[in-house]
Design a protein that fits this description.
Largest sheet: 3 strands, antiparallel
Radius of gyration: 23 Å
Helix content: 55-70%
Strand order of the largest sheet: 6-5-7
Number of helices: 8
Order of helices and strands: HEEEEHEEHHHHEHH
Number of strands: 7
Shape: elongated
Length: 214
């Protein structure tokens, strides 16, 4: 009898927890409201978007993720910039630059390549892995919850857009010393930054977690 009563007590507690949502920024806890498609639920304290369901958002997210993956590969291989100084001309890609150093600098350059290429690509690949079955109304893939949790944990370490902005500032200062021409990879990184921002704004993490739990 004690075991049965405990089960009945635990079930309502679990149901109440299912109806709660915490702001990821300021930790305020709310009861989950009913949010229609195209509407948003926003934290009253810090104005962080908590729930923002969108129709066919999964398909759009996969399309954007694939686009960013293609841009990352192209931006790594194509020339990033060309420099003309005193009759000397040199152009280089991100991949060439990463492996052009030796010693301690080689470790740093490979680390930079890891943060701007490997981690962003891994995060997007995990997102596609999670969303692909869901948009086809199939059960979540194996380890989908762990994959989505890992993709979210990689966000602070995904620095492709930070690299692009940093290079833009550095090249503006370098233009006083030499003629700098932006290569195709620079414009690809610029497009990549915009698409990453659009992807993050389109994603409703609450909806994805609910789909994975169900």
């Amino acid at each position: 009898m004690t075991s049965s009563a405990g089960a009945h007590t635990a079930q309502p507690v679990a149901d109440r927890l299912e109806r709660l949502i915490a702001c990821p920024v300021c930790d305020v806890v709310y009861t989950v409201p009913t949010v229609e498609s195209q509407d948003r639920a926003v934290c009253a304290r810090c104005h962080t978007v908590l729930i923002a369901p969108r129709r066919k958002a999964g398909k759009r997210l996969i399309a954007l993720a694939l686009t960013v993956l293609i841009l990352i590969v192209a931006a790594t291989v194509f020339p990033f910039l060309a420099i003309d100084a005193r009759g000397l001309h040199r152009d280089a890609s991100v991949l060439q630059t990463a492996f052009a150093f030796s010693g301690a600098m080689s470790v740093l350059s490979v680390a930079v390549l890891f943060f701007i290429v490997v981690i962003p690509a891994t995060r997007l690949a995990l997102l596609i892995y999670v969303l692909a079955p869901l948009i086809r109304d199939r059960p979540p893939a194996r380890w989908a919850q762990q994959a989505f949790r890992l993709s979210e944990a990689l966000i602070p370490w995904s620095m492709a857009e930070i690299f692009a902005l940093g290079c833009a500032v550095a090249l503006v200062k370098l233009s006083d010393l030499a003629d700098v021409v932006f290569g195709p990879a620079a414009w690809l990184f610029a497009a990549l930054v915009v698409i990453v921002v659009v992807t993050d704004r389109l994603m409703c993490r609450y909806s994805i977690w609910k789909s994975l739990e169900n």
